[in-house]
Amino acid sequence: MKKSAWLIGAAALCVGISGLAYASNPIQLAVNGKTIETDVPPEIKDGYTMVPVRSIAEALGAKVNWNEERQTVRIESDWEQQISLLQQGYASRTPQEAAQTWAEAVKNRNGAVQFAVLSPELKEQTREHYERIHWVTGISSPWVEQFQIADEREAGEHRWEFDLEFQMKTSTGSAGLATARLTAEQIEGTWYITQVLGGTDGVPNVAPDDIRTDAAEVRAVVKKLKLDVSQTDIGQIFGQQYAKVVAALDGSSMWRYDFVDHQGYIAKAASDGTNVMDDVDRSGLESGALRMQLFVEWDADGRVREYSLYYLDRDGSIANYRLYADGKIQLK
Fold first, then answer.
1. Could you say which of 112, 164, 233, 254 is the most buried, measured as most Cβ atoms within 10 Å of its Cβ?
2. Which CATH number fits the domain that encloses residue 192?
3. 187 and 137, same structural domain?
4. What is the pLDDT of residue 231?
C-alpha cells in the first residue's frame, strides 16, 4: 500500500497547528479537541512549545518509527492512499461528467470534490489555496440555487470547453447570474478540468494558459500581478508614471497605468469635476495608441485589492483580465 512519509531529524517537534491546544502548569496536549497523555511532558523552551512527535502522530492515526542508524523519526500515514481512492471515485469518463461534477461541487461549496476533478498539474498548483479555505468554497450569501451548462464545444483532440451559468440567490430573492468557463482534457483515459475562468469564488488561483494574446509584454505584466502588496511594491514593479483615478462603482482609490505606443498620447477618461474616473480608453486601445491599460485598486490599508488589465486579443477585440483579492481570475 502506498504511504505518505515525512522525515524529521528530531524526536520532538515545535508545533503550532490547528487542532492542537496547550495550557501552562502543566501543559496539556489536545489533538482535535481530545486531551491526550504523553510519556514525555510538553515543555516551553526558548519561547517554543516542544511536544513529543509520537503522541501527536499516533493521535492523528499515523505510525512512528525511529531509525537509529540515520537518527531519524519516520512518520507514515495511509491518509494519502485513502484520499486517492476517494478521488478515484470521481474519475470522469466523459468531459460532460467532469464539468457536471465540478459545477455541482461549486453549488454545494465542496472544494474537496472540485479538487478531485482537477488535473494533476492543477491540483499541485491549487492545493494550498483549498487548504487555506479549509476546502469550503464560495460564500453563504448569495448562494448557487441552480446551474446549467449553457454551451459546450470540442476545442481540439481530447479537449472540450464549457460555459456554465449559475443562478444566484439570497434570502430576499434572485441575485442574478454568475458564469464560469471550463476546459476539460483527457489524461490517461480520464477527463479532468485543466482550466477554470470565472465561477463563484471556487476558482483556482492560477493564471490561464491562454489569455487570448501572444504579446510578450501583456504576458509579462500578467506574471507580475501579485496580491496583498503595497503601493511601494507596485511603484517598484510598474514605476511611478501612473494616473490617480476613482472607481465609479464605489469611489475607491485606483492607479491607472497607460502603456502608450504613440509618444505624447494622453489617455481619455471622464471626470466628475474633481476626480478622474476609471474609464477604459477603448478608442486608444483599438487605434493602437495604447498597448495596454492596467488599473490597480487599493483597499483602505493601501494594499492591492484588485487588478484589471485591458488589451487587444488575437481577434482585435478588447480583452479584460481581472485578478480579484480572493485569487479569482476572470477573462472577458
1. 164
2. 3.10.450.100
3. yes
4. 95
CA dihedral 133, 136, 138, 139 (to 10 degrees): -90
| CA distance linking residue 279 with residue 294, whole number of Å | 11
Does the residue 208 lie in any domain?
A: no
Residue 99 has pLDDT above 90, yes or no: yes
- Provide DSSP, 208-222: -S--S---HHHHHHH
> For the segment 217-257, what is each residue's pLDDT rounded down to a tens digit?
999 999 898 877 899 999 999 999 999 999 888 888 999 99
Residues whose CB falls within 8 Å of the CB of residue 332, separated by 6 or more in sequence, listed in order: 319, 320, 322
pLDDT tens-digit profile of 270-291? 888 899 999 999 999 999 999 9
Cell of 309: 488589465
Residue 279 counted as domain residue: yes
Mean pLDDT for 87-94 is: 89
Residue 96 lies in a domain: yes
Q: For the chain, what is the mean pLDDT?
A: 84
Residue 204 lies in a domain: no
Total count of domains within the chain: 3
113 grid coordinates: 470534490
Same domain as 323, residue 224: yes
Same domain, 222 and 312: yes
How far apart are the C-alpha atoms of 331 and 211, rounded to whole Å? 7
Grid cell in block for residue 256? 491607472
Asked whether 222 and 309 are in contact (CB, 8 A), the reply is yes
Residue 195: Cβ-neighbour burial (10 angstroms; 0-12, 13-18, 19+): buried
Contact 178, 107 (CB under 8 A): no
In which domain, by residue range, is 114 found?
90-198
* Domain-terminating residue out of 30, 59, 81: 81
Angle at 79 between CA 186 and CA 133, to 5 degrees: 75
By C-alpha distance, which of 317, 256, 100 is closest to 191?
100
233 shares its domain with 174: no
Among 163, 198, 233, the domain boundary falls at 198
